[in-house]
Every structure is written in structure tokens, then in C-alpha cells.
């Protein structure tokens, strides 16, 4: 039997509108709290320059490009397919890598279409042509692969350092990656980022001493240089390896001049860990970092340098664990750190990813594929190239140059440079972390252009 207590009031149902307004109130309060936290951490909410800056608007237009190639897949005779069964036809990437194909020829056009700074006054002056041969001011193809750029306050010049691969390509043994003997690190100088003067080889490979890290039979890749304001020294870091990539180390060299010569100091495995593809990054406050692929390329490590930049400190963080990323390129905008990485597929191109963090030591989040325009294959192959560096452009906040290598493993000295505008702005498409519906990070976009140039007077804007 159930008794009813007359003194108890019936329980009132909460009205749905009240519930909804309370939730909205809580969300807004939380958002205000987050903004306040960002401000107290001196991280400003992103300003979407790309939407506002009309000077760079042209560079941020999405340019589509059709691919006019006959691939082996499209050439297949349906009757032969029926006869032979479904043998896997080569992919467009296989054909891109195979020098006997039409696809390969399309992506490695010859000297007739080279970017030539000597041919001044013509319509091409100042234009970047991603993927075409780029000549220096002596009329020779630039040899600065896997490179990076230093802006030198003293000389007000840009210096481009990279691998000189101007030798024959061969395989050290069956199944080995295509290689060129170590020749050294080239340096080119420029005021406008378009015409480059060859400053020579600033760190030479070693011809005789087989025990030397720089012996020609070894591997020297991805050299990068930063300036140490305390010791007034130019410090170069590079990937040092043996022909089968099992040494997995980093090397360091120094010079008193941006144009060298650099003295090679030593190689090491930071914190006793493998280090293959790497880069370095100098922050606004002078603190600098080494970022490298480790643990069989399954993850990246970030480690601050000691104050003289000659060693890593004791601290390091593992990031992108089990994500298999390499070719890191770092940059910073409005207090946020950004990174572009590639997948690990040897010399073959793959999809890039953009990442962001509030601190170099993480946590790092992945924003998605930054490539815009071109066509679907371009976007999935980073325009058939691999990241190496991202260069800030003073006077154009929020705009950067994305530098990548279009590797040609059939003839590595013929590898090309893909430079494209990179802009920060708009909403990112794959942001993992949302602060109650408000994406924490802006979008990083690399815009495809067949040809493009920096706005007039960009250095003084
Ligand atoms: C991919 C790396 O990013 C390049 O620097 C080079 O090491 C190749 N692998 C070698 O296969």
C-alpha cells in the first residue's frame, strides 16, 4: 500500500529553456576564462591577417591546376587487364619517381624553363616558379637542398644553406636509398630572396679520412644555421649519418661569418636517442631548440639547446608518438608555435601536416593538411615535394614562405625547390581541440601557384 504525504509538494520539472540558458551561460563564462588565461599567458587570440591584408590577397587565392598526363593506369588496355588479372598498375607517385615516364618529365622540366636572374627586365623578373630549375647569379642551378634560410641582421642579407648534391646519384647497395657522395653545405646570399649569389661551399665533405663524419661515403642532410647573440657565432646543425642511415646522429659546426668557413665540431645522438630528419628553431627570446625524428622515425623529439647552442640541454619531450613524421619546419606567429611535417616515405612525396602549440615543449596538436589549390594529387603529395623550412617575411605578418624539396631520386642533383606562400588565418579544418566550440588554432594554408611573386617593396611594408 502506498501513502501520499500531503505536505510534500510535487517535484517541479526543470523547464528546458532554463536549462539551455544555464548551459549557454556556463559556456560563455568558460570561454571568457579561457581568453583571460590566454592573455595572462601573453598568447593573443589569433588575428586573421589573411582576411584583412589586401597586399597579400593575391597570394592567398586558391589556384586550381589540372594535371595533363597519361598515367600507366589510364593507358591500361581493358582486354589486357582481363587477360592478366588485376595486376596493380604503378601509382602516379611511382611514375613521378621513374625517369622513363611522361609524368617524371612533366615534373622535371629542363633548362629551357629555368628561373634565370640574369635575364633581368623580362616578364619573369622576381617571379618564383615552383618546381622549375632555379639559377644563381652565375647562371648555374642552385644546389641548396634540404635547406634553410638565415636572415643576418649585421649584413641585412638572407643566407640560404643547403646540401650540395651536385654529384652522380648511385645506390650504395641493393635496396639502399639513392644517394650522392657528401660534397658539403652550400651557401647563397640574397637581398630579395629571388636572385641568389653563390658564396661557395661553407662546410666541405671529407675526401680521404674514412673515419670522419663528413667522409664522402656518409650522409649530410638538412643543414640549418642560427646566430648566437651571446657568443657572436653562427652555429650550424645537420643530420649526420652513414650510407644505411643507422648512425642516426646530429652534427654541429660553427663560424664567425655567415659565409663560413664553418669548423666541424662533432656529432652526437641527443639524449642517447636516434636523430634523423631534423631542424633547429631560434625563438624571439634567444632560446633555441633542436627538433628531430627519433625512435626509428616513429616520433619527434624537441630539446632546448644550451645557451651557446653547441649542445642540447638535459630536457627533451617526445611529440607525435607513433605518428611517423619527419622533415620538420618550425615557425611562430602571435605567440603560437607552428610546425609542418611530412610522412616517412624515403624520397617519395606524401601528405604534409600542420601542427600548433602554445609552447615549444608541447603539447602539440595536429591541424590537418595545409595544402590548398592545385589539384587533389598536389594536395596529397605536398605538390610532389617535402617540407624543409618556413621563412617569416618581416613587413607581412602572418605571411611566410614555405620551402620544400621536390626530390628526384633518379638524379638527386636535379631535385627542385618548391617555394610557396604560407598564410595563417581562418578556421582550421581538423582542429582536434576546441574550447567549447571555439577552435583554438587558426588555419595554416599553403597556396599553390604556378608562378608568384612577393608584393613590391615587401621588405619595407
Ligand atoms: C627522407 C628525408 O626527409 C630526406 O632528408 C632523406 O633522408 C630521404 N628520406 C632519404 O631517403
Automatic annotation (TrEMBL):
Q: Where is this region: Disordered?
A: 69-88
Which biological process terms from the Gene Ontology are attached to this UniProt entry? Answer: carbohydrate metabolic process
Q: Where is the composition biased (Basic residues)?
A: 73-86
Q: Does the keyword Transmembrane apply?
A: yes
Mind telling me which residue stretches traverse the membrane in this protein? 18-35
Instruction: Name the protein family.
Output: Belongs to the glycosyl hydrolase 43 family.
- Protein name per UniProt: Glycosyl hydrolases family 43
Record lineage: Eukaryota, Viridiplantae, Streptophyta, Embryophyta, Tracheophyta
Amino acid at each position: 500500500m502506498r501513502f501520499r504525504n500531503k505536505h510534500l509538494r510535487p517535484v517541479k520539472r526543470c523547464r528546458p529553456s532554463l536549462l539551455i540558458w544555464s548551459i549557454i551561460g556556463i559556456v560563455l563564462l568558460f570561454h571568457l576564462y579561457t581568453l583571460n588565461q590566454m592573455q595572462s599567458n601573453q598568447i593573443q587570440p589569433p588575428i586573421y591577417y589573411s582576411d584583412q591584408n589586401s597586399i597579400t590577397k593575391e597570394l592567398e587565392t586558391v589556384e586550381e591546376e589540372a594535371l595533363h598526363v597519361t598515367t600507366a593506369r589510364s593507358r591500361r588496355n581493358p582486354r589486357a587487364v582481363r587477360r592478366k588479372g588485376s595486376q596493380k598498375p604503378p601509382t602516379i607517385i611511382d611514375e613521378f619517381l621513374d625517369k622513363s615516364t611522361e609524368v617524371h618529365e612533366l615534373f622535371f622540366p629542363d633548362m629551357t624553363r629555368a628561373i634565370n636572374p640574369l635575364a633581368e627586365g623580362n616578364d619573369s623578373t622576381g617571379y618564383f616558379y615552383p618546381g622549375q630549375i632555379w639559377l644563381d647569379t652565375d647562371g648555374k642551378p642552385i644546389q641548396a637542398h634540404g635547406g634553410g634560410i638565415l636572415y643576418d641582421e649585421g649584413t641585412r642579407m638572407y643566407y640560404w644553406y643547403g646540401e650540395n648534391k651536385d654529384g652522380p646519384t648511385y645506390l650504395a647497395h641493393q635496396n639502399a636509398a639513392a644517394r650522392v657522395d657528401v660534397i658539403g653545405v652550400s651557401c647563397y646570399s640574397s637581398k630579395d630572396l629571388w636572385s641568389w649569389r653563390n658564396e661557395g661551399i661553407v662546410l666541405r665533405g671529407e675526401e680521404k679520412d674514412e673515419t670522419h663524419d663528413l667522409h664522402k661515403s656518409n650522409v649530410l642532410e638538412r643543414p640549418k644555421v642560427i646566430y648566437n647573440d651571446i657568443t657572436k657565432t653562427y652555429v650550424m646543425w645537420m643530420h649526420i649519418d652513414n650510407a644505411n642511415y643507422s648512425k642516426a646522429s646530429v652534427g654541429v659546426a660553427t663560424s664567425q661569418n655567415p659565409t663560413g668557413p664553418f669548423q666541424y665540431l662533432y656529432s652526437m645522438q641527443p639524449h642517447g636517442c636516434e636523430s634523423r630528419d631534423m631542424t633547429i628553431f631560434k625563438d624571439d627570446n634567444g632560446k633555441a631548440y633542436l627538433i628531430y625524428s627519433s625512435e626509428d622515425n616513429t616520433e619527434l623529439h624537441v630539446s632546448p639547446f644550451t645557451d651557446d647552442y653547441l649542445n642540447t640541454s638535459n630536457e627533451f619531450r617526445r611529440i607525435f608518438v607513433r605518428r611517423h613524421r619527419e622533415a620538420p619546419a618550425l615557425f611562430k606567429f602571435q605567440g603560437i608555435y607552428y610546425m609542418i611535417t611530412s610522412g616517412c616515405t624515403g624520397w617519395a612525396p606524401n601528405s604534409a601536416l600542420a601542427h600548433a602549440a602554445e609552447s615549444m615543449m608541447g603539447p602539440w596538436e595536429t591541424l590537418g593538411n595545409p595544402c590548398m589549390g592545385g589539384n587533389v594529387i598536389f594536395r596529397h603529395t605536398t605538390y610532389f615535394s617535402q617540407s624543409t623550412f618556413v621563412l617569416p617575411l618581416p613587413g607581412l605578418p602572418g605571411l611566410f614562405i614555405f620551402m620544400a624539396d621536390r626530390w628526384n631520386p633518379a638524379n638527386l642533383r636535379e631535385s627542385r625547390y618548391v617555394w610557396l606562400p604560407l598564410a595563417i588565418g581562418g578556421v582550421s579544418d581538423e582542429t582536434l581541440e576546441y574550447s567549447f566550440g571555439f577552435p583554438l588554432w587558426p588555419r595554416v594554408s599553403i597556396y599553390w601557384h604556378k608562378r608568384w611573386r612577393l608584393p613590391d617593396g615587401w621588405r619595407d611594408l
